[in-house]
Design a protein that fits this description.
single chain; two-stranded antiparallel sheet
Length: about 200
C-alpha cells in the first residue's frame, strides 16, 4: 500500500501547487493597468468577482468526482482532475486579452481541482489500514498545503524575475511573459500530478 499512497501524496503536492498558482497569478493580471498594453485594469472587487465562479466550479464538480470515483476509480479520477487543471492553464497562456477569458480559464482549472481534490482521500483510504485512515488523510491534506506553499514562493520568484518599469514613478511590474510563464509552470505541475496519479 506504500506506493499508491506515495503517488497520491506527490500528486497532492503538484495539484495543490496548480490550484494556488491560479489564485495568485490571475488576480494580479486582472488588476494590472490597461496602460501596460496587456493588463485588464480591474479593481480588487472586480477581480474577486471574476474569480468567484471558480469556487462554484469546485463545488459543482465535487459530486461529478463522486460519480467518476464509482465508475472509473480513484486513480483515473485524480488523473482526470490534474489533466483538466492543466488544460485551464494552457487556455490561460494563450487567452489573456479579456477578463472573461481568464474567467473561463479559472473555471476549467477549478473544475479540475474539484475533481482531483475529491479523489485524493478516497485513494488514501483505499490503500491504508483502517487504523491509519485518519493519519493517512491528514498527511494528504498536509501535502496539498505543501504544494500551495511552494506555489506561492515559485510564482513570486517568477513574477519578480521578469518586470518592466511602469508609470512616471518607474514602478516595477511583472511582464506579460512572466504571467504566461506562471501559467506554463502551473500547467506542467498539474500535468505531472496527473501522470503520477
Amino acid at each position: 500500500s506504500g506506493r499508491p499512497v506515495l503517488m497520491t501524496n506527490l500528486a497532492a503536492v503538484l495539484i495543490g501547487f496548480g490550484m494556488m498558482a491560479q489564485a495568485i497569478v490571475i488576480p494580479q493580471l486582472l488588476e494590472t493597468p490597461r496602460a501596460t498594453g496587456y493588463g485588464l485594469g480591474q479593481s480588487v472587487l472586480q477581480a474577486g468577482l471574476w474569480m468567484a465562479p471558480g469556487g462554484l466550479m469546485m463545488l459543482l464538480f465535487a459530486p461529478v468526482s463522486s460519480k467518476l470515483l464509482s465508475t472509473i476509480g480513484g486513480r483515473r479520477t485524480l488523473a482526470l482532475g490534474g489533466a483538466v487543471l492543466s488544460a485551464g492553464y494552457v487556455f490561460a497562456v494563450f487567452l489573456t486579452g479579456a477578463p472573461w477569458q481568464l474567467l473561463v480559464a479559472t473555471c476549467i482549472g477549478s473544475a479540475g481541482v474539484g475533481i482531483g481534490y475529491a479523489a485524493m482521500p478516497t485513494l488514501i483510504l483505499e490503500n491504508v489500514p483502517p487504523q491509519d485512515a485518519g493519519a493517512g488523510v491528514g498527511l494528504n491534506g498536509l501535502m496539498r498545503s505543501v504544494g500551495t506553499t511552494i506555489s506561492g514562493a515559485v510564482m513570486a520568484v517568477v513574477l519578480a524575475g521578469a518586470t518592466m518599469e511602469f508609470g512616471p514613478t518607474g514602478v516595477e511590474i511583472p511582464t506579460l511573459g512572466a504571467y504566461q510563464t506562471c501559467f506554463i509552470i502551473g500547467a506542467a505541475a498539474a500535468a505531472v500530478g496527473a501522470v503520477l496519479a
